[in-house]
Amino acid sequence: MDIETSSAVKLFFPNPSLALVYFEAIANSLDAGATKIHVEISIDSFTASDTLTIRIIDNGTGFNDESFARFRTLMKPKDGFHKGIGRLVFLNYFRQVAILSEWSGLQRQFIFKDNFDGKGDAEPTKEGTPRNQTTLTFSGFAKDKVKTYDDLKPQSLKEKIIFHFLPTLNSLRDRDIDFKLQISLRTQEGSTQKDFFSSEISITPSDLPDLQVKDIQDDLIDIHAGIRMHYHIKRSDVAASLLTAVSIDGRTIPISLLQPSAIPYGYSIVIIFSSTFFGASADSSRQKLILPDGLTEAALYAKLRREIGELLTENIPEIHEKNERTKKTFEDQFPHLLGYFEGATVGIIDKEEALNTAQQRFFRVQKEILQCEYLNDETFQKSLEVASRTLTEYVLYREKIIAKMKAMTHENSEEEIHNLIAPRRNDFTQGKIADDVYQNNAWLLDDKFMSFRTILSESRMDKVINAIRLTDEISGEAGRPDITMIFSADPADSLPVDVVVVEIKKKTENEKENQYSINQLLDRADKLVQYCPNIQRVWYYSVMEVNASFARSLRQQKWIPLFSFGRVFYQEFQTYRGDDTIVPTPMFVMSFDAIVADAASRNHTFLEILRSVMKRNHKPVSDSAKPDESLDAA
């Protein structure tokens, strides 16, 4: 051979597989006009890879002078479709291939191995009936092990071979040329667990799927050559299977257009694209599609995906039904991303991928808006839209907090409830408003407290608690009253501040204990004002069990009932500083369910308004129009 083979193998087959050995040998047999091909695999056991031998026997025209001349000279193909190097993959897996070929009363016998010298004279066959038969015997397995059982099992190889040669085999069937390809395995030690044992299987015209055809024309891809889509969709009782490929020279090159998860359970789908402009567009190992100049993979694949999407929608109703349910889920749970989801989907929507893609598009728009030094009219409108989306995202977060609080029971500790309203042992400041807004949940009580940012750390909170502790009171789980305080600013500064105090009382139906708890509120407020003289207002919330009897008692004491989905009572008190100046102290007594129900009502109304606006103003994006492209000129 004119080229040193071991180096050529690495150059032209950088990522080979044992399946390529079968493919190349069978391709040569089919090129030689063979209609009967027998693949014989022999191995003592799967782990005894050194005992592997493969014999491939066909009834083709054999290694006559013309074909042998091409074989012994590397890269001398017979036409523009063949590469002239396929046989190199033989030597990547086997040290030698013994070849015996008979045709027209002649025979040629030689051994193909590294640094093959190209010698192999034709001789008359021995006495007997002349026949056309070529046998390739592969021996001396050159790898440490066979990677997978599927490279040896007849059933697995049958599926691979049918798909790889489907265009050629389908053409033979269409021309009424009978063929039979046998695959046999002989092993001394099988494996029931791996379904690995001696067996034989065949491929005949009846095994081929019946392919339907749809013609595709797209001037942006090729003004002269169209694309033909050959497809087969079959209902089955097993997991979904999907094969997509392009056809080049009667063989397929797989292309990844969508994931098998995009196909409903119980469907087997084969889709093969063919076109004259593909030509010989494959790499040397026939594992990768090489596109003509001027045609990008993105443009081609986008077109093919759209065609597959239409095909699947027409033939598999479950896809449309599932996708509609998924889209409804997106509208309900992720309204801030409406308009960023793909408009045209292929197969079943992958929820995780769709959400990630939409979120990344949203992030890109946010980033571009924030990086703009100047907002023209267009980007100003875009910034308003981004702001509304961000607000919607925050309101969705609030829905989760409400649901979490609603799920709490008497088994949850007071500390857990306090931490949900505002995590204790943290310092929240105005300087970290973007981050802290997702941790300060004082809006559960009233939306006006969203602007309150300072929550005292552990050490500072301890000092305050000790200062406002009442005589003989029962401390909470942490050895102190169950109180959360949120300030409008840092109380250590000299500026006046408001403070929200949330105190959770132990659940009890005892009216005397509840009444005593209310009296404690005024004492606590007084101590707090004396300890922190720059407090200008105290918003005090006492969360306790409020039954019908206690509610009547509160009204007798001039507590005002407020509209609520639970029970909420309000009264305005006054707390006096040491200099007799007044600190307004509005107090609220509320049941736990009132916090949850009222917050849910406010938030849901806000969310429905935002969701309605998003649905009305935004359509799904397509491949040709992304929502962030309008910013390119800004």
Fold blueprint:
Layout: H1 5-12, H2 18-31, E1 36-45, E2 53-58, H3 65-72, H4 88-93, E3 94-103, E4 106-113, E5 122-124, E6 133-141, H5 154-164, H6 166-174, E7 180-189, E8 199-203, E9 212-216, E10 227-235, E11 241-248, E12 251-254, E13 267-274, H7 297-315, H8 317-333, H9 351-371, H10 377-406, H11 414-421, H12 433-436, E14 454-455, H13 458-468, E15 483-487, E16 497-504, H14 511-531, E17 535-543, H15 548-556, E18 560-561, E19 568-576, E20 582-590, H16 592-617
Helix pairs in contact: 7-8, 9-10, 10-16
Uncertain parts: 79-84, 425-436, 622-634
Number of contiguous helices: 16
Work out the radius of gyration.
Answer: 39 Å
Task: Assign the structural class, choosing from mainly alpha, mainly beta, alpha/beta, alpha+beta, or little secondary structure.
Answer: alpha+beta
**Which whole number gives the mean pLDDT?**
80
Give the distance, in angstroms, between the N- and C-terminal Cα atoms. 62 Å
Strand order of the largest sheet: 5-4-3-6-2-1-7-8
Approximately how much beta-strand content do the residues carry? Answer: 15-25%
Shape: elongated
